Amino acid sequence: MIQVLLHGAGTMAECFGAAEQRLDLPDGATLGDLLLRIEQDHGERLAGSVWNWKEHRFRGPVVIMSGSRVLRDRATALRDQQKVTFTRAVVGG
Amino acid sequence: MTEEMKGFTGRQLRIRLGERQSRVERLDPEAVRQFLGGTGYACKLLYDELAPGSDPLGPLNKLVFATGPLCSNTVPGGGSVEVCFKSPLTGGWGESRAGSDFGPDLRRAGYDHLIVEGRSETPVYLVIQDGDVTFRPAAHLAGKTVGEKIGLIGAELPPGRFTIGAIGPAGEHLVKFASIMFGDRAAGRGGAGAVMGSKNLLAIAVSGSGRIEPADPEALKTALKRASATLRENPTTAAFREHGTMGDYAGNDEKGDFPTRNWQSNSWGKGAELFDRYEAENFVKPYPCYRGCPISCARKAQVAGGDYATPVHGGAEYESMACFTAYVLNEDVDAAVHCSYLCNQYGLDTISAGAVIAFAMECAEKGILDPARLGGLDLAWGNAAVLPVLLGMIARREGLGDLLADGVRIAARRLGQGSEAFAVHVKGMEGPAHDGRSGKALALSYGTGNRGMCHIHPVEAMAWDSGKMDWGLQKYGLPDPAGVERFDELGKGAATVLLQDGLSLPEILCTCKFFMYAGITLDHWAELLAALTGLPWQGEALLEIAQRVCTLQRLFNFREGFTAADDQLPERVKAVPAFGRYRDQPDCAVRDYDGMLREYYLARGWDPETGVPTPATLRRLQLA
Question: pTM, whole model, 2 decimals?
Answer without folding.
Answer: 0.96
